[in-house]
Amino acid sequence: MRSSRQIHAWLLLLPALCLLVAFTHYPVIKTIARSFFGFGTRWEGKASLDNYRFLLEDDVLMQVLFNSFLYAAITVPVSIILAIAMALWVNSKMVGRGILRTAYFTPTVLPMISVANIWLFFYSPEIGLLNKLLGLVGHGGINWLGDPSVALYSLMAMTIWKEAGFFMIFYLAALQTIDSNLYHAAAIENASKWTVFKRITFPLLMPTTLFVLVNALLNAFKLVDHLFILTKGGPNNASNLLLYYIFENAFSFFDTAYAAALTVLLLSILVVLALVQFGVIEKRVHYR
Amino acid sequence: MSRLTHFVSVAMAWILGVIWFFPLIYAIWAAIHPPEFATKFSLFAPLTMQNFIEAWDQAPFLRYMINTIAITMLILAGQLVLCTLAAYALARMEFFGRGVIFALVLMQLMVVPEILIVENYQTLAGLNLIDTYWGVALPYFASAFGIFLLRQTFKTVPEDLENAAKIEGCSLLAIIWKVYVPLAKPTYLAFSLVSISYHWNNFLWPLVVTNTEKSRPLTVGMSIFGAPESGVDWSIISAGTLISVGPLLILFILFQRQFVQSFMQAGIK
Questions:
Q1: Interface pTM (ipTM) of the complex?
Q2: DSSP label at residue A110
Q3: CATH no. for A34-287
């Protein structure tokens, strides 16, 4: 009886497990192997560190990593601050908060690729909407996507627009679990709105913030769809990000082995973030 | 003072709301007016359906849409079946190595298939599944997120119900189907909405694995359609964009409450 239950358990798991191994664990191992044994699209007989040596010497990669970290360092905090503000507004007794909630959340359900086409129009140099607006105040216009010092920030703006409403949802959920007696007590003490936020709301949102933070960081390394429409990583890699660079190496330059070494780098970054997350979840449990 | 800060706060909320809505509103504006009004805003601009007609003629939208729907549904169906079975085993069965298996499942929460595009492409090429629905769908069937979500829900089902079903002589699969699945309906709805919106919008993997309009979903189609070198004007791109997001947007507006709650539930776990 016991052993038949064991067999049943494995039978139930088998289909999911096979696919999980085939498309997650096996490719991870093969990526690592290829980063040592691969050369171009071929496999070599013996292991070498050539792909990793190239990694260290690759100036474009340095640029790409710098971009990726800057991209994360700006989009994540800005999205989170906006998300908290949005959640507070939508959760307040403000007139029309239902409309606001829809407005904030809508970008989340729209495909990045489709809306990037609309943003492309806002950013385009001659007829673009943003430059027309600048023209109204007598400014000559900015090359939003063509200027190397601006392109990455233009991408960030769109990312923040896309992500903030998504994170708002988590804060909204957290706000609804805060005991309203705390606010009544604060009202009796005549505490200012800012004090209430600083002393009650924000500390109680801390577990959510940590959760959102790690997910936002993971997303910042995974979300590259808009690059395909807006800049293709250009000009001159000024807006290139790690996952897009991997795609380029694998499918445009056909250097599968180097793409594998880059993937190992990306996986290492994600593993570090995940370890932080496990630490965070641990803390979250203690917190409650 | 307090009234002033309140006013500023409300004003900022609405400014942000307008900015967040603006791209969609603008796309609607450009799509329903002639091209010369793409950057000229006038109340008296004539309305037209011409942009939609031209967009529809210039790209096989119907085909893309059928592909997207087929892929999204295939993935959802696969996920629901596989994740249910695995989640039950992990939630309610004692077996050797359960902890290790669960850890292996959770790994996928972090290492999503998109990151492994290079090797997964090779695997699917080996299986001869490039440029097919199955090629796009297969890597997503075993969703760690789905397994995790359902396992958490199944754990809250009272074991007495399962025992009662056993006494009635139900088989293992019948117990899952008749006891656990009905009780987890809200979780299934939440997971389905999240999964549909994720895969409707997914781009990188379908881009890699599809080559022709035979299997290309809307997102990949839009990336070709919207490319500046294709020489299509903005009004038509806007119309195409609206066509591509239309079904999902209508679904979202109809089920807004469920959508928001599903994302919340899925996020909190």
A1: 0.81
A2: S
A3: 1.10.3720.10
